[in-house]
Amino acid sequence: MLKLNQPAPDFKGTASQKGQFKTVSLADYKGKWLVFFFYPRDFTFVCPTELKAFAGMEPEFSKANAQILAASTDSEWSHQAWFERDLPQVQYPVLADVTHQISKAYEVLNENDGSAERGLFIIDPDQNIRYQLVSDGSVGRSASETLRVLQALQTGALCPADWKVGEKTLS
């Protein structure tokens, strides 16, 4: 069972990024914040809206010392074809979890159809899970809310609901 403030499950796999294949592992993100999200399938309807939203906010995540990594159970070949055709603005790596080992480790594998559920994890520079969210496949996640949560976690303080950078914390 995944627990907050405990080590994130280790992983290593092939990702597609800007038309190239590369090996990606959790260790690659040591010392940085990682926004790691899973989506169900390539060539679908809701998924590209999320992928584009995170791509559009990538500069803001980078300013917050955070990297973005996406994953699905589709192959790197499927990722490459879809991203070249429909999502050229996505510059962050997209991990292929064809063995389902990573989706299982992060407890987001849909055993009925072999897809990943919409899981999102914020992992701190020490590689501990600090935030996790799993939602129904029919509802896309908010990249701006993810950034807000990341920034709140980075304060190390108590942050009230709807807190934003520049506002007072509770501690």
Describe the structure.
- This protein has 171 residues and is of the alpha/beta class.
- It has one domain (29-155): Glutaredoxin (3-Layer(aba) Sandwich).
- It has five helices and seven strands, in the order E-E-E-H-H-E-H-E-H-E-E-H.
- The chain has a seven-stranded mixed sheet with strand order 2-1-5-4-3-6-7.
- It is globular and about 50 Å long.
- The mean pLDDT is 97.
Short description:
With 171 residues, this protein is an alpha/beta fold. 26% of the residues lie in helices and 24% in strands.
Oligomer: single chain
Whole-number radius of gyration?
15 Å
Q: Give the CATH H-level superfamily.
A: Glutaredoxin
Task: Examine the coordinates and then state which fold CATH places here, giving the name of the CATH topology.
Answer: Glutaredoxin
The H/E string reads EEEHHEHEHEEH
Summary keywords:
globular; single chain; Glutaredoxin; 5 helices; alpha/beta; 171 residues
SSE topology:
Layout: E1 12-17, E2 20-25, E3 33-38, H1 47-56, H2 58-63, E4 66-72, H3 76-86, E5 94-96, H4 101-105, E6 118-123, E7 129-135, H5 143-155
Parallel strand pairs: 3-4, 4-5
Antiparallel strand pairs: 1-2, 1-5, 3-6, 6-7
